[in-house]
Amino acid sequence: MPTVIIEGPPLAIQRKRRLAEAVTRLVAQAYDWPEENVILVLHENPDQNVARGGRLLKDRSRTHKVI
After folding, report:
1. CATH no. for residue 11?
2. Residue 13 domain flag
């Protein structure tokens, strides 16, 4: 079965649902398999657990919020 793993910042539940539906649909079409056979795993990474350029995202000035 195709498995997709997405690493990213936390998302609101409604956005997770939309993401899961869209990605599942695309992967099922690409493989020509039923959507039920597609597995999607979302790994949410809070800003205190991710660094970029040696600095935690939490310590950077950002306007991006969980939506």
Report:
1. 3.30.429.10
2. yes
Tell me the C-alpha distance between 23 and 28, whole Å: 8
What is the average pLDDT across 16-31? 98
Read off the pTM. Answer: 0.79
Structural domain contains residue 67:
no
pLDDT of 41 > 90? The answer is yes
CA dist., res. 10 & res. 66, Å (int) = 6
3-state helix vs strand vs coil in the chain, percent to 5: 40, 25, 35
Domain tally, the chain: 1
